[in-house]
Structure formats: C-alpha cells, structure tokens
Write a sequence for this structure.
C-alpha cells in the first residue's frame, strides 16, 4: 500500500461538499430557494421568540418550550443554510477540516436537543390534558428549566461522542463529501478505515437518542387520546385535540425524515439529501407557521404587537 493509502485524517486540511448533482444553471434557482426558506426561518423563529418574550400572557410552560424550540430551529438551520448557499456560487465548494468538525458538532447538538425537547413538550401536553388541575404545580418553572437544560445536555454529550467517533476515521479515499453539509454517514463513505465499530457506535447512539424520545411521545399521546375520548362534548374534544395536533405534526415530519435518513440502508445518496432538507430547513421553517396559525394566543399576541407598530408609525407620520 502506498503512502496515500495510510494517510491519517489529521493530514486532511479540507473537504469538498459536493451538494446537489444538478445542472449548473439550476444552482441559481436552488440558491434563491434556500435563501427564501432561510429568510422565512429567520423571520418566523425570531418573531416567535419575540412574541413569547414580550407578551406576559404567554408566560406558561408550553410557550417556554416553544421559545426554546424556535431557538434550536434557528441555530441548527443557521449551521447548514449559509454554507450551502455560499457553495452554490463557489467553484471549489470546500470546507476546512475544523469547519467540518464544527458543523457536525453543532448540528448534532441542536438536532438531538430538539428530539428531547419534543419529548418534553409531549409530556407537557399529557399533564395539561390528563391532569389539568395540577398542571402548574407539576410543570413548575424548576422542572421546565431542568427538562430544557437536560435536552441541551443530552445533545452536547451525544454530539461530542458522535463527532469524536466520526473524526477518528482516516479519510484517504477521497475529500469529496457527497452531501450539502458535513454529516457522519457521508463522511463514513469516503473513509478507508474499517467501519464496523464506527457503524455499531453510530447506530447505538441513534437508537438511545431516538427510541426513548419516541417512546415518551407515543405513551404520552396514548394517554392523551384515552382522556380526550372520555370527554362528552364535541367542542371539548376538538379543543383538546387542537392543542396537540401542531406538536404531533412537527414530530411526524422530523422523526419521519430522521428515521429514513439514519435507519434505512445508505444506498441512495440523492434521496438522503432530500430527506435531510426536511429536518434541516423545512421543519424549522414550518414550526413557527404551524404553532402560530393553530394557536389563538400567539395570533392575539401578534395582532397586539402589529397594532402597536401601526399606531407608532401613524403617530410618526402625523408629527411629520
């Protein structure tokens, strides 16, 4: 074997993000699409956080979790989208070794934290519907803070383990990552190391992250459905289901894409890129829309803020 075959990963100074294999003419269209989606992510999630922080009526456990969900969506999409947009115009499409490590670490941290946060939100809905009289006692400020801090802690630990395992690989086969961001499965494809141990560790990490959170969500919703079906009035059932449907929609999109991406054999790279778009850009874009359009409190708070802005603008015009 020649010197290149035994080259260690530490000698790699950068990677190439291949991105989407389309005609160069379509790069402008993809850039505009990414720009539009990212602008909606920024506007929607910053707007949601602003509404929750400024309106005292939204000072409840559900909106505390929702504010953190917007924060996570904003940051992990910001880890991916700007670099992907730059690469549509770049000929080299390169990312430094340190940049690739940072991107994988931050993305893994926030996506894992979101999974645990969604499980905490399912538990919150379970308490709200199944035990409403003790809701504010059980979902105390301390418990909510612990659940959110625990989500970030689990994300951080998982990210450190996944990033460490991934970058102990030797990348002598190629520098070209067949993806639009640094993810561990595309990185495994270009490694010349024995992947058996790494795949076992990666699968184990995905399992202990995804399965417990899914179990919490499923069990919570089993109790919720059981409780709602006991409500006699149609209006009462509709109101109870409406508080959960938004959360259930977000969970379905996110976990559907993640399970497809990480549990199905990695045989179709282009399909994996499309699935990745669902949880890197589409979900962060849809979350604020789903939660605001189906939530009377958020819509009322938004009208209040817009009303103040319009009043202030009219006052300025009058003075001028």
């Amino acid at each position: 074997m020649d010197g290149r075959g035994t080259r260690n990963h530490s000698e790699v100074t950068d990677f190439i993000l291949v991105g989407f294999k389309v005609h160069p003419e379509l790069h402008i269209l993809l850039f505009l699409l990414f720009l539009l989606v990212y602008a909606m992510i920024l506007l929607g999630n910053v707007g949601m956080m602003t509404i929750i922080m400024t309106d005292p009526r939204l000072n409840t456990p559900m909106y505390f979790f929702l504010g953190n969900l917007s924060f996570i969506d904003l940051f992990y999409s910001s880890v991916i989208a700007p670099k992907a947009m730059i690469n549509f115009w770049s000929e080299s499409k390169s990312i430094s070794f340190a940049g690739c490590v940072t991107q994988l670490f931050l993305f893994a941290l926030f996506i894992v934290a979101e999974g645990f946060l969604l499980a905490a939100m399912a538990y919150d809905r379970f308490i709200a519907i199944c035990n409403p009289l003790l809701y504010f006692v059980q979902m105390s400020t301390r418990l909510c803070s612990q659940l959110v801090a625990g989500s970030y802690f689990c994300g951080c630990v998982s990210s450190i383990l996944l990033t460490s395992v991934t970058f102990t690989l030797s990348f002598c086969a190629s520098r070209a990552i067949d993806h639009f961001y640094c993810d561990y499965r595309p990185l495994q494809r270009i490694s010349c190391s024995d992947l058996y141990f790494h795949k076992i560790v990666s699968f184990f990490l995905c399992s202990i992250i995804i399965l417990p959170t899914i179990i919490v969500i499923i069990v919570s919703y089993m109790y919720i459905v059981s409780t709602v079906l006991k409500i006699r009035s149609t209006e009462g059932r509709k109101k109870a289901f409406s508080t959960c449907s938004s959360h259930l929609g977000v969970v379905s999109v996110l976990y559907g894409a993640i399970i497809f991406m990480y549990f199905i054999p990695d045989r179709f790279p282009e399909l994996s890129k499309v699935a990745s778009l669902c949880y890197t850009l589409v979900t962060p874009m849809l979350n604020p829309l789903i939660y605001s359009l189906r939530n009377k409190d958020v819509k009322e708070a938004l009208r209040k803020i817009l009303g103040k802005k319009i009043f202030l603008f009219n006052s300025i015009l009058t003075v001028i």
About this structure: The beta strands are 14-17, 94-96, 176-177. The chain is about 75% helix and 5% strand. The CA atoms of residues 237 and 249 lie 18 Å apart. The first strand starts at residue 14 and ends at 17.
